[in-house]
Amino acid sequence: MIFACVNSTSYANDELLTLQKNPDHWVMPLGNYSSTRYSTLSQINTTNAPNLRVAWTFSTGVLRGHEGGPLVVGDIMYVHTPFPNKVFALDLNHNGTILWSYEPRQDSNVIGVMCCDTVNRGVAYGAGKIFLHQADTTLVALDAKTGKVVWQAKDGDPATGETGTGAPAIAGNYVIIGNSGGEFGVRGNLAAYDMASGKLAWRAYSQGPDSDTLMDGQKTTVLGKPVGKDSGIVGWKGDQWKRGGGTTWGWTSYDPDTQTIYYGSGNPGTWNPVQRPGNNRWSMTIWARDLKTGMAKWVYQMTPHDEWDYDGVNEMVLVDREWQGKMRKLLVHFDRNGFAYVLDRVSGALLGAEKYDPAVNWASSIDLKTGEPVRVAAYSTEKTGEDVTTRNICPAALGSKDQQPVSYSPQTGLFYIPGNHVCMDYEPTKVAYVAGSPYVGATLSMYPPKGESNLGRFVAWDPIAQKAAWEVKEPFSVWSGPLATAGGVVFYGTMDGYFKAVDAKTGTELYKFKTPSGIIGNVSTYSHGGKQYVAVLSGVGGWAAIGMAAGLTGANEGLGAVGAYRSLSQYTNLGGTLTVFEVP
User: What is the mean pLDDT of residues 213-242?
Assistant: First the structure.
């Protein structure tokens, strides 16, 4: 087993820097600090992948949506669940025997303020501790050997709509978490806690004065220019910024060379754009912050004055590649709005932005000089107006890809995108803010693009050519984070319950297995006893399957998703299970 008793402030970071390079482990939710979800393990390859079989399974005993995936540190696998947010430590020496389990005591009323199912996207490991961000916003540190609580810190207030659904990130000596609740008019923020003590080190809001957003009007830049004083207020009318959304429930990446963290902020408060004039900064934004101070280095807002709920929380993948004949430190981001963005992660310069789903129609392109989307007026929900339906907007609010993270293979140079292929009708309605009550102000319905029947796409994307190399059409959204490996295999799961292995170069299916429930979990791999294993959580739910998870039946319920995914119940059922695969 590998556990460290960390006393020095430098070793906490050194430990993970070392462990992330050892493919025997899977120590971060996205595999490494760069969020590539790539493993150098190659024992399972394109030749023997058709011989995959189930090695062992584990039932979590919890219904609802199982997002995220297990961690592996030494001989122990750590598995989490949606609410009530159980954590299990499983002994890999004995096919998953339970070493310890933790179940927090939370007020069940928190379920009522969780927007899109009671999901949790995973735990984090560092300095001999397991860190969990509970639904009630409590951040808890557990002893990785025993499961005993070391410390806990309350980060927010569920009574106002704040919840915790994201996986913590460990960088340096900090545990970094964001908040959920954009549909309740909360104000998004990212917080860093001291890993040893649980004390708050800094908190940075998505809106407000510079003292809240931790921005310097002259030093913080957007596309190379100073953002100006109190930019987080200027983009709002009156005090709307105080309930401005911009929550941060996605993923955090880290560049240890520059000690910079990268993440995205979500939709502005109220989905009715008529009620919030202005560019609504800094919702829908990519952030680059200094790890130690939290100060923003640069920002880029992808969808100013959002009219469609295109949250910008999806992962930031950090790769070093040649771009137009010059080696660059790149940040690649596949946004909900349907565009794949390529930026210089040091300067924040926008290098490229192309549609990764051909159905996208709300904007024709992204102007690389201004960074602004070139909007198509026919799909503007604001121009159509309140209480009027704008039809056939693509993508739907759940995006061309939601939080389910991509993977990147340095072997092929391709990104593997778990995608949605969904359009919508959208009607803004006037809504009043009441703390702890939904602050949505829109009615939606969703469906596949006209003339098509598939709601999902699994796409191999060339970031340099900025086009798809190949794709697999899926009947339902691919809500599972894929895994790319040095064996030339990419693994992913489907909402109707299939675990699949495909050839990384061609997309040819090599293997599939029907798991007990639909898969919205992220695939992990590790090696134990000299043998490679691949693991995934099944347990259907999440926004796309909220009808099944929460027992909703109205076509417009679940923020518009229920109608589009109604037939999913014919192919799968609820229930959380971990399935571990091997080759003989």
Answer: 97
* Residues 390/374, Cβ–Cβ less than 8 Å: no
Q: Which whole-number Å values give the CA distances from 296 to 101, 169, 364, in the listed order?
A: 38, 18, 30
* Identity of the amino acid at 544: A
Distance of CA 239 to the CA centre of its chain: 29
Q: Regarding beta strands 285-290 and 260-264, do their DSSP bridges make them parallel or antiparallel, or are they unpaired?
A: antiparallel
Determine which helix (DSSP H) or strand (DSSP E) holds 324, and give its type and residue range.
none
Between CA 47 and CA 58 the distance in angstroms is: 28
Q: 41: which 2 tokens? A: 């393990």
Instruction: Tell me the whole-structure pTM to 2 decimals.
Output: 0.97
309 is catalytic: yes
Catalytic residue among 255, 309, 402, 496: 309
Q: How far apart are CA 285 and CA 289, in angstroms?
A: 12
pLDDT (tens digit, 9 = 90+) per residue, 19-39?
A: 999 999 999 999 999 999 999
pLDDT, one tens digit per residue, over 261-310 is: 999 999 999 999 999 999 999 999 999 999 999 999 999 999 999 999 99
Query: Burial code of 283-295, b = ≥16 C-beta within 10 A, e = fewer?
Result: bbbbbbbebeebb
**Mean pLDDT within 39-58:** 98
- 390-393 and 483-485 as β-strands: parallel, antiparallel, unpaired? unpaired
